[in-house]
Write a structure and sequence with these properties.
Length: 462
């Protein structure tokens, strides 16, 4: 009939599309309301029937399951074992607590020694650690334009948005970007990247503290950088809590152990992906921060506190295992996740959670705090409830289950700020990864995507 009418099939389809285009009065939302359920059903069918089918190099479950467990990245500095948890160049958290130099007068791991270990694979000497602290202090002041930018932002803008914007604006002074523009050899990329990474880590405390002071303590002066202090010592000073030695020690530990969690975690992987385009470290890390700001990742530490406060409000003074159980079920039945529980890789309690709990266990005033007790009591009940609920592969706490409550105890009660502290920390691992990606000349990341129809065609042939 087409031949009789003298038009080709392509022209025929174009005419049909044109007629549909004219006839349809649907909105884009209405069309999506129709199309999405169809695609969802197709995906469900693939998941149920063909998860284990091979697509060549990978299985269907890898493509539709968030690439969980897929060995597709190169990263030396840390390994995450599902049962044992994190090791940094082979060292567990307790090993690091024994071997890495603390701050003068302190006991906990500090950011400088963790960064040194991550970057070089070696445990630094005390002199090497102190030298890095001094370099950070000397480079820690913010440029004027970044101060002005942060000061101009609405105080209601989420602190993580402010942090990402500030980090991106620091790229004004990127040595890597300037050197690339001048024209450098690939073999020189890593040295300029390293300088940017050190400058960025040095400036993060002043940036993060300025956000805190602007939003929560406006109009009060911010302490200057003390050249004799470590990075976190200065950060806590600028936040306005420098008088509190225990909080300073807690934040030293917190920032060191949140530093890296294998290469594929969402924030570090984002920095790696963006950095693979040769975007400079500031832009790459700003992107990572926006991944960290998601509630399934770093924002969970804010969510845990919010959830706990709601639980406390609802239960009142009579906190029992039964009451907590009821609240957990209420959360699950309303379709929400229990924040601070579960993990993409871990299948045991997170050793970072254990390390933070141990920090509390030596301090009676922390053990007596109702918020900290609630974390412990929830830990006694939640794994059982989550197992019974039967969805999560890991019913145990991750680091976010415990990290906020100690901050809360010490008076840092503004939990919308908590992910910013995580953001100061994750720079250690994500930026180390960038330096090594440039040193090893790793290429642009560019995985292949497949449509649902293409996957169906492949699996149906098998
Ligand atoms: N509460 C309720 N349900 C949960 C759950 C939790 N804590 N953890 C996982 N599940 C659900 C998932 O939503 C998923 O449900 P669907 O099948 O309906 O999609 C199912 O259990 C299977 O998930 P999983 O394979 O066990 O976990 P994922 O690898 O998909 O997700 C994580 C991991 C962390 C996103 C998830 O456990 C979660 O949402 N936890 C709560 C948020 C949180 O604490 N995030 C912080 C993680 C640490 C960090 O990055 O900082």
């Amino acid at each position: 009939m087409l031949r009789q009418s003298g038009i080709s099939s392509r022209a025929f389809s174009q005419r049909i599309f044109a007629q549909r285009r004219l006839a349809s009065t649907k909105t884009i939302r209405e069309v999506l309301q129709e199309v999405i359920p169809q695609k969802q059903a197709q995906l469900q069918e693939l998941k149920a029937k063909h998860s284990q089918a091979s697509l060549g190099d990978v299985k269907v479950e890898n493509v539709i399951g968030g690439m969980r467990g897929l060995k597709a990245m190169l990263w030396d500095a840390s390994v995450l074992d599902p049962i044992e948890g994190i090791r940094f160049h082979g060292l567990s958290i307790p090993d690091c607590q024994k071997q890495l130099t603390p701050a003068p007068g302190g006991k906990e791991i500090i950011a400088e020694s963790m960064l040194w270990l991550l970057l070089t694979g070696r445990v630094p000497t005390e002199a090497e650690t102190r030298q890095l602290s001094r370099e950070f202090a000397e480079k820690g002041d913010l440029p004027k334009h970044v101060e002005q930018l942060i000061d101009s932002l609405p105080k209601t803008l989420h602190p993580m948005t402010q942090l990402g914007m500030g980090v991106a604006a620091l790229n004004h002074d990127s040595q890597f970007a300037a050197a690339y523009e001048r024209g450098i050899k690939k073999s020189e990329y890593w040295t300029h990247t390293l300088e940017d990474c050190i400058n960025l880590i040095a400036r993060l405390p002043a940036l993060a503290a300025r956000i805190y002071r602007n939003v929560y303590k406006p109009g009060t002066p911010i302490a200057g950088i003390n050249k004799d202090l470590d990075l976190v010592g200065n950060y806590v000073n600028m936040l306005g809590y420098g008088h509190n030695h225990d909080l300073t020690e807690y934040l030293r530990l917190y920032i060191a152990i949140h530093g890296d969690h294998e290469g594929g975690n969402a924030s570090a992987h984002t920095a790696h992906l963006v950095g693979s385009t040769l975007s400079d470290p500031y832009l790459s890390y700003a992107a990572a921060l926006f991944a960290l700001a998601g509630p399934l990742h770093g924002l969970a530490n804010q969510e845990v506190l919010r959830w706990q406060m709601n639980m406390q409000k609802e239960i009142g003074d009579k906190i029992t295992h039964e009451n907590i159980k009821e609240f957990l079920w209420k959360t699950l039945k309303s379709g929400q996740v229990v924040p601070g529980y579960g993990h993409g890789v871990l299948r045991n309690p997170d050793p970072r959670f254990i390390a933070l709990q141990e920090f509390c266990s030596t301090r009676p005033e922390l053990l007596a705090d109702p918020v900290i007790q609630l974390v412990k009591q929830t830990y006694e009940v939640a794994p059982g409830v989550l197992k019974e609920h039967g969805k999560t592969k890991n019913p145990y706490p991750n680091v976010d289950a415990a990290s906020g409550c100690v901050l809360y105890h010490y008076g840092l009660t503004e939990f919308k700020y908590y992910t910013v502290i995580f953001g100061v920390s994750r720079a250690l691992g994500a930026l180390t990864q960038l330096v090594w990606a440039r040193a090893l000349n790793l290429p642009l990341e560019r995985p292949k995507s497949l449509s649902i129809d293409a996957i169906k065609q492949i699996v149906e042939k098998q």
